[in-house]
Amino acid sequence: MSIIGILQGTAIKNSVVGPVRVAGKRLVSISIYVILAFGPACSLHAQTPRTAPRSGFVFYEEHRIGIFESQRWVNSAEPEVSPSGICDCITIVYLGSRRVLTIDPGTVMSSEIDPRSGRDINGDKVPEIIVSQYTGGAHCCSSTTVYSVSEEPKMILHVDSGNCAGDFDDLDHDGKLEFVVCDDAWAYERCPFANSPMPRVVYAYSPTVGRYVPATPRYWERFQQSITRSVAQAEKDLADPNRDKDLDICTVLGPVLDLMYAGKLDEGVALLRRLYRQANGSALEQETVEKVRRSSHWTASAP
User: Fold this and answer.
1) Tell me, what's the pLDDT at 288?
2) Rounded (to 5) percent helix, strand, coil in the chain
């Protein structure tokens, strides 16, 4: 399913986002980040059309976002728009009179066009499109997809991140953005959600393979101090005689997993053995290491 409208030079392709589901659930909220390049031949001042995207939808509002105009059309049968932008809406993005992108989810959603439009975020010398989706609800579900746009879009990142929305940041200050998220697979892992470990994960663009790949170990020094503080806090919590001992595993797994995902697997195992000395310690160690190694978010060393 294509979810991209592309503008490069004067060539524009239109695409429509159809009904989107994640794990069988309709999306409730979606944030679309469109990052495009354009040539001087494009007119920036042509009047934006107001053509209904399909029957039953009426014009609601229009906003200028950078060089783009974003129109929101609402279902006339359900015209309510919440303060947070949740609605049964279709969003159309124009450059002048040219339609660049249509977001037609077929369900209640909010749409946002990021003002950073027009950037090469990964150093491949072509613009990217970042699509962030959210199902709504107390827990779950977020996903992020990045397309590199030249003649045709190429998917260079897709992460179903569950409870972790993630964000882009230039961690090493080289002008290229990394995607920082967490591994949601540990939610409810022997713990209530509020105490679930959520190990940090960093994706970085690899020119060799032409896509974003797990690269958390490369940024060990960036996160070393926070992991050290997490270890100290775990030691303090475990020394409290009035603690809820049923949460000991949760307390231990937090810093242990951060170490393992940062490329320090052996150090993580050693910390687990030191902090958790219950009868089921060996089983916990084996299960933890096996699950870490199976994770698509984990890598033993930086690429």
Assistant:
1) 96
2) 25, 30, 45
